[in-house]
Design goal:
about 350 residues, five-stranded parallel beta sheet, about 40% helix, binds iron/sulfur cluster
């Protein structure tokens, strides 16, 4: 979108005028948080943060699935990769995430078998073609990616493939937002909600933000214009002291989301209390295998011993994921931690706040 002329320019002028009014009303910049790695990238790439910085303080929340994966889970998959009978199948970003003492990348260089796949079904096909090896798929992702992984597990069971399992570190977004709001140590004035996640769970799943916490929230799409529109709606609600959870991505998101996708997930997975980086254990914020599918749970199939996990020294990722620290405020940012030699996951993932900040801001 071009904000120098035409419709884009008019929208931007209205947005900045409203943002100024809101900042005057609050006596400070409005603190708005996006909780989706794709939004983080769109905001950074289009310079939206700096364009509005006089009136709006835009923060990234726990919206990057690789980044929120707890250090103990990173260490568990690295430990599994060291078994000679195991092939780790993973999405690409996880390979470079540093664990406490190693990474998948380093173990692969030392001979571990780590294969990158773009789809879990491809990993299943690999398992079919390599019956002598145990393929462990690293199940990372939010509500958007979980249905495809669940469908793969159902298919594995149907085909009775006993050399395929999943290390589930899946997460669900609403409990993390509750944890963030219950913590209360960092004031947030409103949320830009993830469009793809909402396409699965529906707008209603985020209704609690306005009904219980009295904050506005807007489900947004992924064009720059979508994000600017969502910001306008948020600022408008703040200006008028109206708390609403608005769906501004109606071309994809329905009130109840996609029940069929959720059905596939609930066929084999159920909620579990799991740790998030920087948050600790959040109740019912992850997914584990149901009875009938536990044979496909890598934690049941293998004994996984890991030493005590601890995040990299000096790494501020936990605070960045809660919005309390801006990436550039981490003492390691751009010096000891860069995309070429990342210290924390927020600098590894293409959707990480630190990587986006380093690349575009
Ligand atoms: Fe973590 Fe690096 Fe970001 Fe600091 S700059 S918070 S170490 S990823």
């Amino acid at each position: 979108m071009n904000i120098k002329d035409g419709e884009g320019k008019r929208l931007f002028e209205r947005l900045t005028s409203l943002a100024g009014d809101v900042a005057a009303k609050l006596g400070r910049a409005a603190i708005l948080m996006e909780v989706c790695g794709t939004h983080t990238t769109v905001i950074a790439k289009n310079g939206i943060k700096s364009l509005l910085s006089d009136w709006v303080d835009l923060r990234s929340g726990p919206g990057c699935p690789v980044c929120v994966t707890d250090q103990s889970d990173v260490d568990r998959v690295i430990a599994l990769s060291c078994r000679p009978d195991v092939v780790i199948a993973t999405f690409g970003d996880m390979v470079r995430v540093p664990g406490t003492v190693s990474s998948l990348e380093r173990e692969r260089a030392g001979g571990a078998k780590v294969e990158v796949f773009y789809s879990p079904m491809d990993a299943l096909a690999y398992a079919h073609d390599h019956p002598a090896q145990q393929i462990v798929f690293l199940g990372v992702g939010f509500e958007t990616t979980t249905p495809a992984i669940a469908a793969t597990v159902v298919e594995a069971k149907k085909r009775q493939l006993d050399n395929f399992s999943v290390l589930s570190v899946h997460k669900v977004v609403p409990p993390a937002l509750r944890a963030l709001l219950d913590d209360g140590s960092f004031k947030i004035d409103g949320f830009i909600l993830p469009g793809h996640v909402s396409a699965i769970i529906g707008r209603k799943a985020f209704e609690f933000i306005s009904s219980e916490y009295n904050l506005p929230a807007v489900v947004a799409g992924f064009e720059a214009a979508d994000v600017l529109g969502a910001l306008y709606l948020l600022l408008d609600r703040i200006m008028r002291s109206r708390t609403q959870t608005v769906n501004a991505y109606t071309r994809l998101v329905k009130e109840d989301g996609n029940p069929r996708a959720r059905e596939i997930v609930s066929e084999c997975l159920e909620p579990a209390h799991v740790p998030w980086r920087g948050f600790g254990v959040i109740p019912e914020s992850g997914l584990t295998f149901k009875e009938g599918y536990k044979d496909y749970d890598a934690t049941k199939r293998f004994v996984i011993d890991v030493p005590d996990s601890c995040p990299p020294e000096g790494c501020g990722c936990g605070e960045v994921l809660k919005g309390r620290l801006k990436p550039s405020e981490c003492p390691l940012f751009g010096t000891l931690c860069t995309p070429f030699d990342p210290v924390g996951p927020c600098m590894v993932s293409s959707e990480g706040a630190c990587a986006a900040c380093y690349q575009y801001e």
